[in-house]
Amino acid sequence: MSTAASRPTRVDELLDSRLMAKLDQLDVVSRKIFAGKLQGERRSKRRGMSVEFADYRHYVHGDDLRFVDWNIYARLDRLFLKLFLEEEDLSLLLGIDASASMDYGSPNKFVFCQRLAMALGYIGLANHNRVTLFTFGGEGLQRLSNLRGRRRTQEMGAWLLQRQPGGATGFDDAMRTIALSRQGKGVMVVLSDFLYKEGYEKGLRYVSGGGYDTFCLQVLSPEEVDPGNHGLSGDLRLTDMEDEDVAEVTVTPGLLKKYRENLNAYCGTLRDYCVRRDMTHATVDSGTDMDTLLLEYLRRRGLLK
Amino acid sequence: MTWLTPLAGLLLAAAVIPPLVLLYFLRLRRRPMPIASTLLWRQATEDLRANAPFQRLRFSILLLLQLLALALLAFAIAQPQVDAGSRRGGRTVILVDNSASMNATDGGEDRTRLQQAKRLARGRIERLFGGGIFGGDPGEVMVIAFSDRAEVRTPFTDSRSQLLAAIEGIQPTDGTTRLEEALALARAFTTNVDPDAKDRPVEQPAALELYSDGEIADLSEQVLRGGESLEYTVVGDPETANVAIVGVAADRPYDRPGTVQVFVSVANFGPEPAEVDVQLAVDGVVRAITPKPVKLAAAGIDPTTSLYQPGREQVVFLPFEQARDALVEVSLLHQDDFPVDDRANMVLPPARRLKVALVDPKGFFLREVLVGLEGVMIERLDILSADDFAKLVEEDRADEYDVVVLDDVVPKQMPKAARILSFGSAPPVEGLNEYGIKEHVLVRALRGDHPIFRFADLDDLYVSRMHTIAPGSDVQVLAEAAEGPLVVAVSRGALSLVHVTFNPLDTNGPFGRSLVNMVCNAVEFLGNTREAIASDGLRAGQAITARVPATADDLKITLPDGTSEPVTATDTSVSWGPVRSTGVYELSWTQPGESGRVRRRFAVNLLSDQESRVAARPEVKLGEDRVAGAKASDAVQTPLWPWALGACLALLMVEWWMYRERTG
């Protein structure tokens, strides 16, 4: 479990230059191609001004004569218009669970999420994507919207450093607000442990379907993945960090086995739910090395390329 | 099994076991730990379903082990011991019998009963005071040792070391057993002496604990008072048989004073008939052994009298020549558990006849009687006039005669040292105040046990005229008529006097044998000629008294064990005692004109039916209270608490291991 003292206080603690250099080669992948507002480096479904050819169509009155394919006209004596794929910017939403339950584990889940969000946000900024960060938890929904370009990196880092975990999740409300205030389409990455007593289904339903290519990264601490080897033993009075709920357990091999079964079932249910709604789910251990996670694991899972 | 500190164990169990069970109920012992979410844990364990503070106590092997461990701990603290009857608190009087029968060697492991009794009593003290900080109040304990007399070894105290020392210091004696004095002492210490509340004791009456073989002479005369309790611990074996010498005597026949004849009474106190050889030794040299073993019947209850009757036989040895003084020892040639009564000693003074002076004989009677004794008991009889006697007194030579007989003579001055038999008018001795004459007197009362009335009952004596005297308080009246004393005995330092208040010629005495016998006995008694015929000596508990010359110096008494103690003489008599053990005591002194020390020996024998009956009584009966004895056990009180504690530790280790297995 991490304390405030061990939290990063500077931006370069969230993302060091060495990793930054490696991230320069990466980009956020959207399995869907979304329409952006600004011309970006991304193919859009909307035909546009890019150099990448898409199709032809018949000329109609009023079309820009600059896009008439004069070679076709010479051969066929009919006016065809060249259609190009327009390259658009990508909207990248990074949501971080800042509830009390995230302030747990060694390494701390929240700090891990801060770092991951910083890395993903940097990738987005470096690729001229429109990056929006938001946190949900005790402070309610906090948002930093529409960052573009590398120069916003420091601003993004400072904002992340200001966030403090605490309170209840408020996942449903946060997702609802995000969904309602949606501007365009994009990639949404939700970093959370998804251990919500009220359930995650309702919240995820808001952001499924429509506008977002959603990635649910379920961050769990090593204590949660394998409590038997991380200090949970004997007769314990477990107190829930969010709602003070008390559970008294006597840790036995049988109980640990049962816990692991339950955890696997829970994660499996979440994964199934995500798959059914065309979302991507991945479980991440907060003890995972950031390089490995970004350069290998998330690339494999299709979030980065 | 007994418990030294049952209360402490119970308190511990009551204090610890319910809270442990309660802890299992309340589950208060859990380590608090914050966790991100209890969501999965709630699902994982059925524990989590029950949120109530109390829940059904499920079977838990850990709880069972812990309960067992605690129970063992409580068991250990209660300090269980195998065997013992332990009462605690209050006042306890430990009565240890140290009489002769307690010297019997059937106490196991070659120990005497007294050693066994002392060990048991020490064990009792250890039990009372054992238990350390968990032990309750042991109360106060008093230790009394008793035989024929009782001795407070320590008054009521709560000092364990003092009590142990008091018990350790109890010495064996060869005395008889009497409980009365011990009970009186114990009661004296527990009874209130406050005159305003004399009808109630200070505190609860003491609990009496008797360590004895139960052979107590005056048991039937004692009763337990209200509130008193008696615990009787039997020491010794109820099956112990014993053959004993219960009586000895030696006599020099009148006609042959140079010879000695010895008589022995032997008794069998065992349930089986016995045969035993009796040996006679003189000055350490064996003189005779019974030609064939003396056959003794078994002891048993006499059907006619319903009284216990040992098998008895008399042994008479043939007379043997022994003119000089001698130490005669009679012994039984066999081995039993009680050797004290297998031996008896007699001190045989040299054959001696008396020098007797008869002063101013008035009639034929005394002269004829004394002349008749001449050559038999009397070596020389001098007839003196009153003037001769006065001169003798003046020259202080009256002591030259063994006995002086005054026939109605009132000397002006009495000698300082003499043995005088006087008739008629009272001689001028303090305590004999003559005040008149009475006539026609008959004997009303007589001290029949006194030696001078041996074969002289005086029943038929008629006295026509007597001198009445008012005897002083220290004058012993031996025979009495309604009108006043007839025969009195007085002792004034070295002067011994037997005074007969009538003249023999004023009676019908000369016509019977009683008066003649009385005169002979009186001369014999005064002249100590009876000493010439050895008696069976003294008993343990009695005092040695002897007359020594006024010039005797450096008096010393040598005990049977060889040690000697100085003694001092008062006037011409020596008293030392009471003697505690049997054997031969020797009184010796130096005297001008004597080369070497003058020695005189005294034999102390047991000769007691009561003490020789050594079979331990399984119960004692005080008045109507029968007290069954607890059998003395040689088994050491084995404390069980170390085992319980060890088992407790082992259980805790198992519990720890299981806990590790379950949580690891």
Structure at a glance:
The complex is a heterodimer of chains A (305) and B (664). Chain A has 305 residues and is of the alpha/beta class.
Describe this entry's structure for a reader.
The complex is a heterodimer of chains A (305) and B (664). In chain A, 33% of the residues lie in helices and 28% in strands. About 2% of the residues of chain A have low confidence. Chain A is α/β, with parallel strands linked by helices. In chain A, β6, α7 and β7 form a beta-alpha-beta unit. A six-stranded mixed β-sheet of chain A has the order 5-4-3-6-7-10, sandwiched between helices. The longest helix of chain A is centred in the last third of the chain and has 24 residues. Chain A contains ten helices and ten strands. Chain B has 664 residues and is α+β, with helices and mostly antiparallel strands. Chain B folds into five domains: 104 residues, no CATH class; 166 residues, von Willebrand factor, type A domain (Rossmann fold); 100 residues, Immunoglobulin-like, CATH 2.60.40; 179 residues, Rossmann fold (3-Layer(aba) Sandwich), CATH 3.40.50.880; 67 residues, Immunoglobulins (Immunoglobulin-like, Sandwich). Helix content of chain B is 21%, strand content 33%. In chain B, the strands form nine sheets. A nine-stranded mixed β-sheet of chain B has the order 22-21-23-24-29-28-27-25-26. Chain B has a seven-stranded mixed β-sheet with strand order 6-5-4-7-8-38-37, with helices on both faces. Chain B is elongated, with a radius of gyration of 38 Å. About 2% of the residues of chain B have low confidence. The interface between A and B is medium-sized, with 37 and 23 residues.
How many DSSP helices of chain B? 11
Give the tally of structural domains of chain B: 5
CATH superfamily of the largest domain in chain A: von Willebrand factor, type A domain
Helix- and strand-based class of chain A?
alpha/beta
Query: Could you tell me how far the N terminus lies from the C terminus of chain A, measured between alpha carbons in angstroms?
Result: 32 Å
Mean pLDDT level of chain A: 82
Task: Tell me the number of strands of chain A.
Answer: 10
CA radius of gyration of chain B is 38 Å
Major beta sheet summary of chain B: 9 strands, mixed
Oligomer status: heterodimer
Radius of gyration of chain A, taken over Cα atoms and rounded to an integer in Å: 23 Å
**CATH superfamily of the largest domain in chain B, please?**
Class I glutamine amidotransferase (GATase) domain
Shape summary of chain B: elongated
Which CATH architecture of the largest domain in chain A would you pick?
Answer: 3-Layer(aba) Sandwich
What best-fitting shape of chain A do the alpha-carbon axes yield? elongated
Total discrete domains of chain A: 2
Classify the fold: give the CATH topology of the largest domain in chain B: Rossmann fold
Helix content of chain A: 25-40%
Kindly state the percentage of residues in helix of chain B: 10-25%
Instruction: Give the H and E element order of chain A.
Output: HHEHEEHEEHHEHEHEEHEH
* Count of discrete alpha- or pi-helical segments spanning 4 or more residues of chain A: 10
